[in-house]
Amino acid sequence: MGVEGTFEEALPLLASLQPKLIFFLGSTIGNLTENECEPFWSQVTGSMAEGDHFLLGVDLVKDPSVLAAAYNDAAGVTARFTKNLFVRMNRELDTSIDLDAVQHEARWSPERERIETHAAFLERQTIELDGRRFEIEAGERVLVEISRKFRIETLSRELERFGLHRIDTFTDERDWFALLLLRRGAPGPG
Question: Is 59 exposed, middle or buried (0-12, 13-18, 19+ CB in 10 A)?
Fold first, then answer.
């Protein structure tokens, strides 16, 4: 059965399926802020019964130089992704942002253990949208994406608050990425 929709729309549809294993293999969870994770995990566990499993893929904390190279890649792929947000705004929302005035900036925040991607505006921009006017000054930076990185033990403790217990962990040879096999309910064998 294919399900199309937001997490909020799709997760309740899973509640009637038993037993279940939910896959969340991309590191999408890293794009949610700490505040957004609370309702997300509450909804996930609300759709699970005792004994159901969840396989979660996460991007782990690693050397900041590795992250800098990934998010400021020499080929400019990530910069084009950032600029594409404004290409779409121009096309779909009829804004007239000068794309040459938008510069990609991705920086590691050690305090928050995340990459913060900003659009830095090289020139003043005026954006009109739905009858509202927004002024962005030259030099102003707009946060467009976060990409949180995780530590397995810290994340496991956080997920236990929602009744998800880690029963196995799979990592690559460099410990840059992980899959956590989680079980809903009391800790124990899978």
Answer: buried
Helices and strands counted in the chain (H then E):
5, 9
Name residue 170's amino acid. F
What's the CA angle centered on 149, arms 148 and 151, to 5 degrees?
135
CB atoms within 10 A of CB 68: 14
Q: Which residue has the tokens 């994770």?
A: 37
**Where do the DSSP E strands lie in the chain?**
21-24, 53-59, 102-109, 114-121, 125-129, 132-136, 141-148, 164-171, 177-184
Question: CA-CA distance, 72 to 6, in Å (whole number)?
Answer: 29
User: DSSP letter at 19?
Assistant: S
What are the tens digits of pLDDT across the range 44-103? 999 999 999 999 999 999 999 999 999 999 999 999 999 999 999 999 999 999 999 999
Q: Report in angstroms the alpha-carbon separations of 135 from 16, 102, 140, 154.
A: 48, 14, 10, 40
CA distance 30 to 60: 10
| Residues 25, 134: Cα–Cα separation, whole Å | 37
The whole model's pTM is what?
0.86
